[in-house]
Amino acid sequence: MFSVTEIRNGEGVLQLREEHLTGLRCKISPGRLKRGLDVTYVAPPAQEGCPFCRDQILVATPTFRNGERICVGESVTFPNLFPFAEWHTVTVITRDHLVDRFTSRQLRDALTGQMRSLADAKGYPSINWNYLPSAGASIAHPHLQGLVDTRPSVLAENYLLGAKRYRVRTGRCYWEDLVEEEKSSERYLFGDGITWLASAVPLGEREVRGILPIASLRDFEPYIDEFAEGMIRVLEYYRDMNTHSFNMSLFFDSGRGDGSFRAFCSMISRINPNVSSLADTAFMERLHLEPVILTLPENLGPKFRKKGSC
């Protein structure tokens, strides 16, 4: 599924990894952990006039064409005022402006709101989350973003096309083969219906992949509870590592697939918010699309299990 090339660099070892299906590459340099760039988490300051707080949300946010918003539990869903997709929605997850630990019910309700807001849009849906400013959140109040475009994003397209080629070449489903192989590796974390793994060729620090047994958004509802509980377990692990900020994307096909694709989630931890606005990505990640990673995926599984999360 992937290749590893090790290079001795001074006193350390640099790993060059490549995923065969997509050609995605990354560099893993565990020695860079010694720099200690991440800082102790300090909550962002309160935001005056936050448009997602309860005293503003029904005034500052738009409604759908029927004049309504989608409300499920604490969550409120509405169109994005500043979209960067053909269909772009926002789900405010909680009443509280800052939340350090989420409940599975909060995530389940927010995911349900997202699913309903994207259900009628034609194209390739994804559900996404930037949590805290150091992960790219312009508003600290926790919120999901749903996107649908007629063409999938670069990463999703790589997997859609790669999985089709794999099926033509082997007659098998890439995702089923991947899960079968990874369940016997150190990268397996937990789960059976939804399988959670440390990504062998990470796109970011401590990347975790959740692979669902479905492909399209319309089949997501029976798995929302399990998915929300799985996310909670990953977030608790991040907290155990003193990481509070993260990104998440959940990708689906268009609903017209040939059975070669599986919906999958990618979660990466990000550096904690800090006064100097130091970020943990630079030109290699943003311009070369070749992320520099610190943590070996094979170390993630044992550490996760040692923390008692499994």
SSE topology:
Elements: E1 2-9, E2 12-19, E3 25-28, H1 57-60, E4 70-72, E5 75-79, E6 87-92, H2 104-118, E7 124-131, E8 143-149, H3 154-170, H4 174-182, E9 188-190, E10 195-198, E11 208-211, H5 224-240, E12 245-251, E13 264-270, H6 283-286, E14 292-293, H7 297-306
Parallel strand pairs: 3-14
Antiparallel strand pairs: 1-2, 2-3, 4-5, 5-6, 6-8, 7-8, 7-12, 9-10, 10-11, 11-13, 12-13
Helix pairs in contact: 2-5
Task: Please explain how this structure is put together.
There is one protein chain. With 310 residues, the protein is of the alpha+beta class. Helix content is 25%, strand content 25%. The chain is built from seven helices and 14 strands. The protein has a ten-stranded antiparallel beta sheet, sandwiched between helices. It has a four-stranded mixed beta sheet with strand order 1-2-3-14, with no helix packed on it. The radius of gyration is 19 Å and the shape is globular. The model has no long low-confidence stretch (mean pLDDT 91).
Question: What is the total tally of β strands?
Answer: 14
The best one-word shape is globular
- Estimated helix fraction: 10-25%
- Mean model confidence by pLDDT: 91
Strand content: 15-25%
Order of helices and strands: EEEHEEEHEEHHEEEHEEHEH
Total number of helices: 7
Largest sheet: 10 strands, antiparallel
CATH class, named Alpha Beta
Going across the biggest sheet, name each strand in turn.
4-5-6-8-7-12-13-11-10-9
Distance between the termini: 25 Å
Oligomer: single chain
Q: How does CATH name the architecture?
A: 2-Layer Sandwich
Low-confidence stretches: none
Q: Name the structural class.
A: alpha+beta
Radius of gyration: 19 Å
- CATH fold group: HIT family, subunit A
